[in-house]
Amino acid sequence: MKAYLLLANGMVFEGRAFGAAGTSVGEVVFNTGMVGYEETLTDPSYYGQIITQTYPLVGNYGVNGEDAESARIWAFGYIVRELCGTPSNFRCQKTLDEFLKEQGIIGIAGVDTRRLTRIIRESGVMNGALTTEYKSADAVRADAALMEKIKAYTVKDAVDSVTTKCMETFNENGKYHVALFDFGYKRNILRNLVKRGCKVTLVPGRTTAAELAALEVDGVMLSNGPGDPAENVKIIENLKEIAALGRPVFGICLGHQLMALATGAKTEKLKYGHRGVNQPVTDFAKDRTFITSQNHGYAVVAGTVDPAVAEVSHVNANDGTTEGIRYKNIPCFTVQFHPEACGGPRDTEYLFDDFVAMMKGGC
């Protein structure tokens, strides 16, 4: 079966369909990672987006549910150059085609993903549609109603769409009790906390300071998540009160952005974002540059961080964007990249150790 990708600029890419049939509209982005396609697909941060995988061969080791970052696929579509239909791995439970099909997600193979990536890099992230419901590229291009739907699309209510609806506790006998805010959390954040002896209570994204105080937690973890951080007005207001509780706070990705907004800084949308496992980040305190895993389309504007409130602790070595903030008047630090790194390098897992040390009162 043929499938088509229609971009907001009118360009059409033709390929072979896999996964589910139908039409899906979303924000078309690209990921440069050579590994970790299963983790990428199940990362809630991709809610509302159609992922272009730049590595040419995808699906060669199949799918194993234990590697997933959440219970389902959150991306709205998947674009690959070459799909492997015969994966070879002793842990494989199903093919990538089967994985997408059972969850109703459209995929397209046979697309020149390098060309598509160049278009996005030049023009910026743009909306698009994946569809199997047309007989030719000309028919797709001629559908004015579909183009209007593409142009009108925005990622809305993202955090509310992916967050848990109820609290759940893991590692009940852990030494330090951490409230993990689910803005679209990755399971590897939970794994890293439990590995360090923490009791973890997963809480909905809109949990208030009063509800948090009732849990008697030792620390607060602000997770990654999708969408425009500034959209989360109520959560930002909650974080102002949560910061006043005085509990150690560690934020990752969206959690980093939300804490910055709660303390008066601003965020901006990047031209095409940072998505991959090879992003260099300089840690000023360590005077060292680390290779990190990243997935974000927004960034904190460094010039809006009040020096009386906080300081920028990490920057992206490629474009100078803010990658970390350390706060001066509250026990809090946040980073834009993913120290839980799955898939990707694990060199910055030391930040979880720093967070546990804060709960011990060591820093």
From TrEMBL:
Physiological role: Small subunit of the glutamine-dependent carbamoyl phosphate synthetase (CPSase). CPSase catalyzes the formation of carbamoyl phosphate from the ammonia moiety of glutamine, carbonate, and phosphate donated by ATP, constituting the first step of 2 biosynthetic pathways, one leading to arginine and/or urea and the other to pyrimidine nucleotides. The small subunit (glutamine amidotransferase) binds and cleaves glutamine to supply the large subunit with the substrate ammonia.
Q: From which organism does this entry originate?
A: Ruthenibacterium lactatiformans
A family per Pfam: GATase
Q: Could you say which residues bind L-glutamine here? A: S45, G225, G227, L254, Q257, N295, G297, Y298
Q: Which SUPFAM superfamilies match?
A: Carbamoyl phosphate synthetase, small subunit N-terminal domain (SSF52021), Class I glutamine amidotransferase-like (SSF52317)
User: What family does the Swiss-Prot or TrEMBL record give for this protein?
Assistant: Belongs to the CarA family.
Q: Which InterPro entries match?
A: Anth_synth/Amidotransfase, CarbamoylP_synth_ssu, CarbamoylP_synth_ssu_N, CarbP_synth_ssu_N_sf, Class_I_gatase-like, CPSase_GATase1, GATASE
**Substrates-to-products reaction catalysed:** L-glutamine + H2O = L-glutamate + NH4(+); hydrogencarbonate + L-glutamine + 2 ATP + H2O = carbamoyl phosphate + L-glutamate + 2 ADP + phosphate + 2 H(+)
Q: What range(s) does the Carbamoyl-phosphate synthase small subunit N-terminal domain occupy?
A: 1-131
Q: What is this protein called?
A: Carbamoyl phosphate synthase small chain
